[in-house]
Amino acid sequence: MGSSATLEMVVPSAAKLSHLQMLEAESIHIFREVASEFQKPVMLYSIGKDSSVMLRLAQKAFFPGPIPFPLLHVDTGYKFNEMITFRDEQAASLGLDLRVWRNEQALADGANPVRLGTQRCCGLLKTTALLDGLRAHGFDAAFGGARRDEEKSRAKERIFSFRDRAGQWDPKNQRPEVWNHYNGRISPGESIRVFPLSNWTELDIWHYILLEEIPIVPLYFAKERRMIVRADSLIPVEQTFVHGLPGEEQWVRSRLRSLGCSPCTGAIRSDADTIPKIIAELVSFRSSERANRVIDHDQDGSMEIKKREGYF
Amino acid sequence: MTTTGGMLDSEQSEFAIEEFLALEQTKDLLRFSTAGSVDDGKSTLIGRLLYDSRNVYEDQVRAVTGTRVGQKHGVIDFAQLTDGLRAEREQGITIDVAYRYFSTQRRKFIIADTPGHEQYTRNMATGASTADLAIILIDARKGILTQSRRHAYIASLLGIRHLVAAVNKMDLVEFSEEVYRSIEGELEELVASFGRAKLVTIPVSALDGDNVVEASERMPWYTGPTLLEHLEAVPVWKEEASQALRLPVQRVIRPDQNYRGFAGQIAAGTVRKGDVVAVLPSGQSSRIASITTFHGDLDEASAPLSIAVTLEDELDISRGDVLVDATRLPQQSSSLEASLVWFDGDRLETHKPYLLKHGAQTVSARVSRVLHRTNIQTVTAEAVSSLAMNDIGVVQVELIRPIFFDAYEENRASGSFILIDPVTNATVAAGMIRGGLQAAGSGDVARQKAGVIFAEDDSMAAAVESILLAEGWPVVTTCVQDEQLLRALLSLRVAVIVRATGGDGLNLNGLNVLHVSDFVGQDGAVEDGDAAAAVVDALRNWSGVAGQKGDGR
Ligand SMILES: Nc1nc2c(ncn2[C@@H]2O[C@H](COP(=O)(O)OP(=O)(O)O)[C@@H](O)[C@H]2O)c(=O)[nH]1
Ligand SMILES: [Mg+2]
Question: Is B14-233 assigned to CATH 1.10.4160.10?
Answer without folding.
Answer: no
